Task: inverse folding
């Protein structure tokens, strides 16, 4: 009987689990890998993925790690690292920038030692309903993340206000639920809110649309770097804030 | 007019007066609290009286004997408190609450005081609008809006203040914001509505002054 594609070794005494990927990780194996990582993260909060045995992976495999991490709440509520990747796989993880979200280490001991340090890129997302209380939910998500990531208070305040305005805008004008994400890079914090109204024109915040109005004027004043990304079934508005010490 | 810690510290008249005055007012509050029981939260009353004292002091005759001024304020505050505690006007002592926010209106002698506590956004702004309209309808000369306990406000939460300021101006009243948190001050600035509240507020420490942010 061939070995299972994915095995889990639980280090209960040390509060983490090692998810060992098999030698050949093909597309049909990936849901099992993702489920194993998510189970380990949910049960123990910390998971290490052992890729020592894995050879010639399919590139799409790298998407599993951020997806599992995001599904379990993101760092520091879920801590995930990778070790034992060969040169080809490590290069793939670097080129897809997955290694920014999920640190890649040579050995299990190194991965475990580094697990408490914030990765260069951290991300949290929340699905918000189409209700008047959705902005409060979005604010709570941003505030919680900023506190956990040690974002300076003035940036946190701006991000919370921007999240509230963007989610309010979706509830009022798009009339759908939304997905809010907040990302911290090395020097920036990005708040993005996606709606699900495919038939609404992207008129807000466009440079040629005249001055923005209402809450979006607040967003435009607080965040000089913003963008609108269309989706087949809606759009996402994102605002990037520099993380610099308070003046 | 926006009164905040910066403005208070910049006023050379207040610091010498405020300490003794606040002690006298607190004694008055304690006395009233004993007499009437905990109909009003004592802490809330203390803040109201301090806010009222600041307003009166800033507008009072500076050439008067300071002791007399203080006595007048204490007497007036006692009268206001007795009125508020003993005979709340309208729904004065009953807070409006919605989710994460609460607001009260106290109609006192000469002033209406609106206290807003919590988070004001598209979900909770109706209660602030309701209390502000109640305060404006009370016909007092000044409407003091105490924002000291507002933990969050966005554009939807700010809108009732703008509407109430318009309504107050139309009826010859003044709407004054008290204890404006830095984040709310910044919201007022970036929304370009500082003029609605009687002038440009002092720029808070920490936040970059963003003005003219509405330009496309």
Result:
């Amino acid at each position: 009987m061939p070995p299972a594609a994915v095995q889990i070794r639980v280090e209960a005494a040390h509060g983490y689990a090692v998810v060992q990927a098999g030698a050949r990780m093909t597309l049909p194996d990936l849901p099992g890998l993702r489920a194993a990582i998510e189970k380990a993260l949910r049960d123990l909060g910390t998971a290490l993925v052992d890729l020592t045995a894995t050879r010639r992976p399919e590139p799409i495999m790298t998407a599993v790690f951020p997806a599992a991490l995001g599904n379990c709440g993101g760092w520091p509520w879920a801590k995930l690292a990778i070790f034992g990747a060969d040169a080809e796989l490590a290069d793939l993880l670097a080129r897809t920038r997955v290694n920014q979200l999920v640190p890649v280490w040579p050995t299990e001991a190194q991965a475990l030692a580094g697990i408490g340090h914030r990765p260069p890129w951290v991300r949290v997302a929340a699905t918000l309903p189409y209700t008047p209380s959705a902005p409060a939910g979005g604010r709570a998500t941003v505030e919680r993340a900023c506190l956990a990531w040690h974002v300076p208070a003035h940036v946190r305040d701006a991000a919370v206000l921007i999240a509230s305005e963007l989610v309010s805008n979706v509830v009022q004008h798009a009339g759908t639920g939304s997905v809010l994400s907040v990302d911290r890079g090395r020097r920036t914090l990005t708040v993005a809110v996606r709606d699900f109204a495919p038939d609404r024109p992207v008129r807000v915040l466009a440079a040629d649309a005249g001055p923005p109005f209402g809450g979006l004027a607040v967003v435009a004043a607080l965040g000089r770097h913003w963008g609108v990304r269309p989706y087949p079934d809606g759009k996402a508005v994102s605002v990037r804030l520099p993380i610099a010490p308070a003046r | 007019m926006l009164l905040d810690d910066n403005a208070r510290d910049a006023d050379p008249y207040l610091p010498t007066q405020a300490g003794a005055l606040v002690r006298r007012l607190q004694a008055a509050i304690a006395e009233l609290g004993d007499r009437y029981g905990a109909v009003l939260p004592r802490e809330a009353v203390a803040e109201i009286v301090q806010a009222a004292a600041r307003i009166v002091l800033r507008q009072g005759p500076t050439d008067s004997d300071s002791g007399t001024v203080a006595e007048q304020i204490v007497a007036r505050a006692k009268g206001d408190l007795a009125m508020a505690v003993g005979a709340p006007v309208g729904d004065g002592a009953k807070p409006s609450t919605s989710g994460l926010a609460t607001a009260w209106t106290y109609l006192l002698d000469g002033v209406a005081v609106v206290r807003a506590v919590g988070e004001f956004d598209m979900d909770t702004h109706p209660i602030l609008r309701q209390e502000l309209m109640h305060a404006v309808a009370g016909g007092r000369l000044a409407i003091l809006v105490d924002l000291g306990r507002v933990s969050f406000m966005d554009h939807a939460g700010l809108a009732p203040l703008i509407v109430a300021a318009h309504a107050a101006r139309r009826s010859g009243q003044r709407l004054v914001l008290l204890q404006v948190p830095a984040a709310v001050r910044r919201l007022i600035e970036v929304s370009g509505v500082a003029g609605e509240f009687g002038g440009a507020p002092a720029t808070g420490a920490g936040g970059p002054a963003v003005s003219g942010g509405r330009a496309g």
User: Anything to note?
Assistant: Chain A touches chain B through 29 residues (CB under 8 Å). Residues 202 and 208 of chain A are 11 Å apart (CA to CA). Helices of chain A lie at 30-44, 64-71, 87-95, 98-101, 108-114, 134-148, 153-174, 214-222. Residues 205-211 of chain A have pLDDT under 50 and may be disordered.
